[in-house]
Amino acid sequence: MASRDIRIILAGPRGKMGTAARDLIAHTAHFSLVACVDHKPQTETHFSDGDVPIFTDADRCFSEVEADVLIDLTTPQAAKTHLEIALDHHVRPVIGTTGFTDEEIEQLRAKAESKSLGAMIVPNFAIGAVLMMKFSQMAARYFDDVEIIERHHDRKLDAPSGTALKTANLISDVRGEKKQGHQNESETLEGARGGQVEGMPIHSVRLPGLVAHQEVVFGGSGQTLTIRHDSIDRGSFMPGVKLAVETVMATKTLIYGLEQVIE
Ligand SMILES: NC(=O)C1=CN([C@@H]2O[C@H](COP(=O)(O)OP(=O)(O)OC[C@H]3O[C@@H](n4cnc5c(N)ncnc54)[C@H](OP(=O)(O)O)[C@@H]3O)[C@@H](O)[C@H]2O)C=CC1
Ligand SMILES: O=C(O)C1=N[C@H](C(=O)O)C[C@H](O)C1
Description:
Dihydrodipicolinate Reductase, domain 2; NAD(P)-bd_dom_sf; elongated; binds NADPH dihydro-nicotinamide-adenine-dinucleotide phosphate; NAD binding; oxidoreductase activity, acting on CH or CH2 groups, NAD or NADP as acceptor
């Protein structure tokens, strides 16, 4: 291994994103996969990526293997554990797994900063999705009324998506809280108006056939504006994973979202 290589531990290597990330690492000259964390022991012989140890015990993995970066693409619960263990072992986490609360992100920021370690939580690695979020924040300066409709495959565990929450978060930074719709509106069917972030409804659709899609719909007097992004293939996320790994090596704080990095 050349000394310039970034040594990576990958958690969730068998998953849809984990499979694409293994391919990315294998095809990136300065990345080296040094170990995987997978909670299912019977999978240990499944990979053909070379001589990479696969650990079911994350603690043991980080104790035994020298690494620079953790890429986590698992489940919300597993990712929270892996992130803590990585920071304890001075390994910089790049977390693509979604399902973190704002409070959890702030706790992790404090922990990363106390160790002067870079960390990234990236709700969406697709550059187009990052632009969709940035454009939405820009549009929110001119339109107060907005609803977010996110659509994903039906294997997704968390709702709403991390992208929808991050989008709402970016919009509320410029818009503040606002109750939308009729002041006397009521739901005759619970959930019909979606979940609310600062008065902004988020609607989650789950269907087979979908990958990852989002529309941010703004309404104003006599007009609407729709900003839409579609990931139709998980390859869309990989340039952002690469950028996040490179970025986390050069920072000493937690960065939440690739929009902080892309100008
Ligand atoms: N930031 C971004 O741009 C993107 C983020 N995501 C997020 O990434 C995460 C993974 O998505 P996706 O690949 O579609 O999901 P998958 O279900 O395809 O993959 C998750 C993998 O993690 C494994 N896993 C579960 N628990 C553990 C554990 N404790 N340790 C190690 N591995 C574990 C699962 O194994 P098993 O199935 O056997 O339980 C599975 O192989 C989700 O949170 C999703 O929202 C997805 C796409 C883009
Ligand atoms: O689970 C997924 O597939 C995706 N999850 C992320 C999210 O929750 O926003 C990113 C992307 O939308 C795909």
